[in-house]
Write a structure and sequence with these properties.
With 205 residues, this protein is an alpha/beta fold. The chain has 9 helices and 5 strands. It has 2 domains: 126 residues, P-loop containing nucleotide triphosphate hydrolases (Rossmann fold, 3-Layer(aba) Sandwich); 69 residues, no CATH class. Helix 4 crosses helix 5. The longest helix has 25 residues. It is an enzyme of class 2 (transferase).
């Protein structure tokens, strides 16, 4: 794989999607692990059929789509089921990610994943970018966006890798605690730098 891969991640409410969308507007191919994770369990997929075979048709909505809330409840209550699901889906997701990274034609390609470090997807990347904000901003933004309680947001944050550990692992940190304009300005500088690195990478490969 000769494409230079930028791993993009960030905690809930940090603004990873805004960064991803801005890079897409600059013509950068975005490989979104969340989108792929949904595709591998779409109606008619082998992934969905395996889940139905394991847990029964009650795991589906009436329209045949996966009832994610019901599946989440099962796997959080039963560790063997969680392990089984991960062993089923992670290879499928990884295969599709690799395929899309290989097919990208932009100067560099972004692998966007909220669990980039947790799922070891950073190993597929040449460089990682963490979109970072203080937890107080995460709480406020997510509660307002998703119309959920701050307690619920706190439990989601607690289930993710700690902010300090993500900061330690990331190659570059984009602080997104100011205005969108500030973020876009800083991102433009980073983007130009990534293009330059990627061009040098491709000529020396």
């Amino acid at each position: 794989m000769s494409n230079w891969v930028l791993g993009l991640t960030g905690g809930i409410g940090a603004g990873k999607t805004a960064v991803s969308n801005a890079l897409a507007e600059k013509g950068i191919t975005i490989v979104d692990a969340d989108v792929i994770a949904k595709q591998v369990v779409a109606v008619g997929s082998s992934g969905l059929q395996a889940i139905v075979d394991k847990f029964g048709a009650a795991i589906l909505h009436t329209d045949g789509t996966l009832d994610r809330a019901k599946l989440r409840a099962i796997i959080f209550a039963d560790e063997p089921s969680k392990t089984w699901l991960e062993q089923l889906l992670h290879p499928m997701i990884r295969h599709e990610i690799l395929s899309q990274l290989k097919d990208a034609t932009s100067p560099y390609v972004v692998l966007s994943a909220p669990l980039l470090f947790e799922n070891h997807l950073d190993k597929l990347c040449d460089h990682t970018l963490l979109v970072d904000v203080p937890e107080a901003i995460q709480l406020a933004r997510t509660a307002a966006r998703d119309r959920v309680s701050t307690e619920q947001v706190k439990s989601i944050i607690a289930a993710q890798m700690s902010r300090s550990e993500k900061q330690r692992r990331a190659n570059t940190i984009l602080n997104n605690d100011k205005s969108l304009t500030d973020m876009y300005n800083e991102l433009e500088i980073l983007h130009q730098n990534f293009v330059s690195i990627a061009v040098n990478h491709s000529t020396s490969a």
